[in-house]
Amino acid sequence: MEVFHFLPEGPDRTVSLAAMYSRHPPADERAEARLTRAFDFLLDVIEHEDYVMCEQTQRSFRCGAQRDLVFGRNEPGLIHYHESIEAVLDGAGSRRQPVAHS
Fold it and tell me: What are the CA-CA distances from residue 42 to residues 20, 21, 35, 38, 63 (Å)?
């Protein structure tokens, strides 16, 4: 399981921390190496794809070219997270109608 923490330091800067957890310790050095490679791969994708896209999206918001963002079907965790926050902000635990995602 991977856990990510995002710590805003200002309007244009956020520090992210990542950790990987396993139910059981690796059985041997080979298993540990496999987990390390998998985590390194994940971090590489996040750094060189996801964070780059986040920066581009933020620039679009800042210049006014884009006002809304819709998560695709491949991001159910993020969809649930944002819908939960919106429900709390809407008050009294009311939930907005789910948005169709493509």
Answer: 10, 14, 11, 6, 30
pTM over 0.85: no
Q: Choose among 53, 84, 48: nearest CA to 66.
A: 53
Query: What are 95's two structure tokens?
Result: 């939930």
Q: Each residue of 13-29: pLDDT tens digit?
A: 889 999 999 899 999 99
87/97 Cα distance (integer angstroms): 10
Amino acid found at 7:
L
Q: Are 101 and 89 in contact (CB under 8 A)?
A: no
Q: What single-letter DSSP state applies at residue 102?
A: -
3-state secondary structure 21-81: CCCCCCCCHHHHHHHHHHHHHHHHHHHHHHHHHHHHHHHHHHHCCCCCCCCCCCCHHHHHH
